[in-house]
């Protein structure tokens, strides 16, 4: 802890040694005295004014590292910075042996933006070991359409070796089916539930409630199927509203408010971590069928997007689910990151997974 005494000593040293150092740079004795005086005054004024400038005193208190409160405030604002990601998409010519010519291949990478506030959050790209500690013994449920499937794949690729991944890919990508696995080394159970429609998600949540078992981590998201097959944003919005109340009643707090028959006061319910997997940015001209290009227009996408916001489902609008904004991640990665204008390269979902893991880190610290 950096106390007043140490600060005082530090100030004294600066006043003494900085001018002495300058003297070494051939300053006259008068100049040394001048600098010494000026420094002394600056430091004195600084020390006395510090309490009146919140940002300075925040800095001082966070340096002193003893004040949990400052760190906590920081954490809350860090959640809003999780998506501050910068992409680098660089063309690289590689020789394609199959086609016997050079083809352009884009290398894509991402990192959190470099700025003071983002840096101070110390987001980290979690590696296998970190993930196995963080999700040790957890039950993870990921439900939704192909976006959720790719998200699940990305999470698994963080914890499995390449051999494990081969077998996962084979079974996870059987179209339109559920997938269950247990990663023994870390006691993590992962269930992927195929749920192309929001109504499917609502039934899933209802099932969890019925059985009184709750995953530690629940990631859900649907929308593209509804957009293609119903193309009716207000109907989508309606189903989101139903899902919202269903998910809200999963949370233990809701029984306190009495708007739920009570998940049972005797059952100790650990509140699950809830995430909404946002829809990707669609690149209309690249969509692979005429029907998709006609129905999934920019206008319709915007309407669906708005329904998600207006449903009040997301944490930032007072709801229970924290957004994993695949829309902004895919938009920022750009059209080089997708082949069909809808499914993006693994790197986009990988960024989403890392954002989720960092959100979990923030939440778990908060709960300590
Ligand atoms: C490479 O060759 C294939 C087949 O001949 C062709 O379709 C493709 O456009 C070529 N790519 C480049 C970058 O020349
Ligand atoms: C997971 O938790 C168990 C029991 O708490 C512990 O024995 C084990 O070492 C943990 N594994 C990892 C990878 O953290
Ligand atoms: C999802 O919901 C649709 C429409 O409500 C239904 O037809 C379909 O069987 C459901 N699928 C699953 C996997 O539950
Ligand atoms: C859209 O859905 C709403 C609510 O389900 C329904 O009342 C309306 O008729 C639908 N609109 C069209 C054009 O199908």
From TrEMBL:
Coiled coil: none
Organism in which the protein naturally occurs: Psophocarpus tetragonolobus
Entry's localization field: Membrane
Transmembrane helix recorded as keyword: yes
Keywords for the protein's UniProt record, in alphabetical order: Membrane, Transmembrane, Transmembrane helix
Any one Gene Ontology molecular-function term assigned to this protein's record: acetyltransferase activity
GO terms for cellular component: Golgi apparatus; membrane
UniProt KW Membrane keyword: yes
Superkingdom of source: Eukaryota
Name used for this protein in its record: PC-Esterase
Gene Ontology annotations of biological process type: xylan biosynthetic process
